[in-house]
Each structure stands twice: as structure tokens, then as C-alpha cells.
Write a structure and sequence with these properties.
Elements: H1 3-19, E1 29-33, H2 40-48, E2 54-59, H3 62-69, H4 74-77, E3 80-84, H5 90-98, E4 105-108, H6 123-151, E5 154-159, H7 162-165, H8 172-191, E6 197-204, E7 207-208, H9 210-216, E8 225-226, H10 227-237, E9 249-252
Helix pairs in contact: 2-10, 5-6, 6-8
Length: about 260
């Protein structure tokens, strides 16, 4: 059995056990970035189902907020708090984090995909990719970690990419910025040894979102990773069941 196959087998067993327990994040206050986006439409309801006390979701597009609300029951919607935030601006991120009563869990979904041949790729686009994928991760983790260290508790889950560990042609900026997310998360995990804070990253392949279907067609969508499936892995890593897992980069590849 390969190392990857063994990891999948172990993770499947752990997820099965944790799913039978229910309320894996009961009473936790969660910061969920990207909660109104395509991936967030699958992740946010799954996080709500874990018994969380509240979810703070930064946003910049009011229409996406309304789209998410339309998919959430009124009983669950009262646990959502939406805050207009520029995640590329440190002062805005600090205000977001400091406005929360506690920061028990951070789930950072924000990111973006682009592609192009390296010799044709503009430096402006390269910088934009790193700003969106890596710099937002740094700012959110930096200020959330400050709060977590004060309370000696926290769970950080970031989203990398399969491309971070298996980079491909015409994806240099995307893969490099996502590799930075993996390295940053692992560094935080090492820095927080000896505390009740963990940091882990998931590595999805193609995610079945409306944007990806529009861009790539839906012919192979049944082979892609479902947002809800990725959400289950994220919620496990954010739960007490994963308290001994630090610095893991978990592949979630579907059948791609």
C-alpha cells in the first residue's frame, strides 16, 4: 500500500468515527472566509451542522451574501454574522478579527485560480495571484493566531491545492502561491507546538463548483471533489477529534 493510499484509509476511518459523534464543533465561534463563494455554499451549511455557536463571514459582494442566505434556514441564519472586509488590507483584517468575541476556529477558503504560460504571464497578474491566495492567508492567520494564543486554543484550516505538491504547466503562479499556503500552515503548526492550537491544510483537486462547471464544462464533474465532501474533511480537522493532528497536508483528490 502506498503512503497516499494508507493516508486515505486512515482518514476514512477517522472521518467515519467522527461523523457518528455529531456536534463536533459545539459552542465554537468560527471565522469562515470565502463563506459566500462557490466553495462556501457547500462548506458553510456543513459547518453550521457541527453545532457551532456562531460563524463570522467576511464579504465584499452583498449579492453573494443574499445567495448564501437563500440556502440557509432562518433558524441557522441567526448564527451567521456578515462583515464587509477587504482581506488584502491588514487594518481591515485586524478589525474583523478583533470584532469577534472569540476566535476558536479559522477556516480560510478565500483564493483564486488563473493560468497562463510563464513567459507570457504578466507580473501584475502574478502579484494578484499571490495577494489573493497567499497574502490573505497570512493576514487572516496572523491576526487570528494572536487571539488564539491569548486563549490557548485554536483550530486553523487552510485550503491549498493538489497543484501545490504536483505543479503543472501554465499554472506556475497558482501552484507557487498555493505551495506558499502549505508552507505557511506547516510553519504555524511548528510554531504552536506545546499549545492547544493546531494548523492543517487540505489539498483539493478540481472542486465541483458553479464557476468550475462554467469554465470547464460539466462532463467530468462527477469525478471532481464535491464541496460538501471537502467540507467534511475541513470540519474534522477543525474539531476536537483532530486535536493531535498538526501540520498535515491532506489530499482530497476525488477521482481526478
Amino acid at each position: 500500500m502506498t503512503d497516499t493510499s494508507l493516508l486515505y484509509s486512515l482518514l476514512s476511518i477517522i472521518l467515519f468515527v467522527s461523523l457518528t459523534m455529531g456536534d463536533r464543533m459545539k459552542g465554537k465561534q468560527v471565522l469562515l472566509t470565502g463563506g459566500t463563494g462557490g466553495l462556501g455554499l457547500g462548506v458553510t451549511p456543513t459547518v453550521l451542522a457541527q453545532g457551532v455557536e456562531s460563524i463570522t463571514i467576511p464579504y465584499h459582494n452583498p449579492q453573494e451574501v443574499e445567495r448564501l442566505k437563500s440556502r440557509i434556514s432562518p433558524a441557522d441564519a441567526v448564527r451567521l454574522k456578515f462583515v464587509s472586509t477587504d482581506l488584502t488590507n491588514e487594518a481591515s483584517v485586524q478589525q474583523l478579527v478583533d470584532g469577534m468575541q472569540r476566535v476558536d476556529v479559522v477556516i480560510h477558503l478565500v483564493g483564486g485560480f488563473s493560468m497562463g504560460k510563464t513567459h507570457e504571464y504578466s507580473y501584475e497578474q502574478w502579484q494578484k495571484d499571490f495577494r489573493l491566495n497567499l497574502e490573505t492567508t497570512f493576514l487572516v492567520c496572523k491576526h487570528s493566531l494572536r487571539r488564539m494564543l491569548e486563549q490557548n486554543y485554536g483550530r486553523i484550516v487552510t485550503v491549498g491545492s493538489r497543484g501545490a505538491v504536483e505543479p503543472g504547466g501554465q499554472l506556475a503562479a497558482y501552484c507557487a502561491s498555493k505551495a506558499g499556503v502549505v508552507a505557511l500552515t506547516k510553519a504555524i503548526a511548528d510554531e504552536t507546538k506545546g499549545t492547544n492550537i493546531t494548523a492543517n491544510v487540505v489539498l483539493p483537486s478540481v472542486i465541483d463548483t458553479p464557476a468550475n462547471r462554467a469554465a470547464m464544462g460539466a462532463e467530468n464533474a462527477d469525478q471532481w471533489v464535491k464541496a460538501e465532501s471537502l467540507a467534511e474533511v475541513i470540519c474534522f480537522l477543525a474539531s476536537e477529534s483532530a486535536r493531535d493532528i498538526r501540520g498535515a497536508a491532506v489530499p482530497v483528490y476525488g477521482n481526478v
